[in-house]
Structures are given as structure tokens and as C-alpha cells.
UniProtKB/TrEMBL annotation:
SUPFAM superfamilies: Flavoproteins (SSF52218). This is NAD(P)H-dependent oxidoreductase. Residues 7-148 form the NADPH-dependent FMN reductase-like domain. Pfam families: FMN_red.
Amino acid sequence: MRALALVCTLNASPTPSSSHLLADQVMAALAEGGAQTETVRVADHDVRPGVAVDMGEGDAWPALRAKVMAADILLIATPIWLGHPSSICQRVLERLDAELSETDDQGRMLTYGKVAAVAVVGNEDGAHKVSADVFQALDDVGFSLAPGAVTYWVGEAQQGTDYQDLDATPDAVAATTRTLAANALHLARLLRDHPYPPS
């Protein structure tokens, strides 16, 4: 099993990121379950706007897309901004829209058989709304979602504590992350052995 995290913080490396921290925790749980993992911070790459597989010279998406296509599990990690996924997360979803036109010789999207999950952080409410938005987009472009396909943390309203500022991972977040990893791996293995039927 291969798992890829696309971290959609607005900040490029090496700026600390709560989204990156939670993604790393998910990747660690997946690794414990036997997956080979990789984490990519999208802000470190020049992903052009658009809804095509390749937007031309200088576009970094084709190389990232190759990583997505090589993975069995895709994690999208995003902060909450103004009640929505980050603009970088939205760009990733828009680029994944191109997969609607990419099919195998049996008419299935190339993303069929791949499992997706979501990690959300913020210091205001909105994790359910953000995960719902990302879930729907991932489903639209062919990914499958296991039960418990999101882990998240949000702090109290109108305060400035970030997830990365906590002294320890809350037990509920750690438990949810473990469930996400276990269920994603289980579904990915099932889909590897029992592919979807031709479309």
C-alpha cells in the first residue's frame, strides 16, 4: 500500500503548519499499518490554476498527479479559512477535476480503486462543513471513502491557539486518526483485490 498526503496549508516550507502536523500524524498511523507514505506541501510547488491534467510549461501538477496515480490512498489536509477549505485545497480539487475525462480501457476513471481521506484543522468551527465539501469533490472525481474518513481539530472560537501549539495530541483526535488509517487501509486492500466493475 502506498499513501500520499497533499498538505494544503497556505504557507510554503519551512513555515510550521498545523495541517502538515496532522497530516504527518495520519501518515504515521498509515505507516504503522504497513503503508509506504509520502507527504507533499502543495505550496512548495507551482500548481497552475485550471481543470486540465497539464496546464503547460512550468506547471507542477503533472508531477504531483503522477504521485496521486501511484498511491492507493490520498489524504487531503487543509486548514479552515473563512469557513472553507484553503484556496490551495480548492486548486487541488479543481486540478483533480481533469480525472473525469481520464479512463481506462473499461471506461473507469483512473482514480477508481483509490481511497481518499481528509484532515482538517482550524481555530474556529467548520470541520464538518469543510470535510463535506472535500468529500463530495473527491467522490465526484472517482475516489472511494471509508467510514470515518476524516480526522480534525478545531479550537475554541475567537482564540489564537493552533493545533501545532498544543502540548499533546488530544486523545479524541489520536483515536480518530487511528480509525481513519485503519479503515482507509482496509478499504484500499479490498479494492485492490476486488476492483470496481467496468463502467
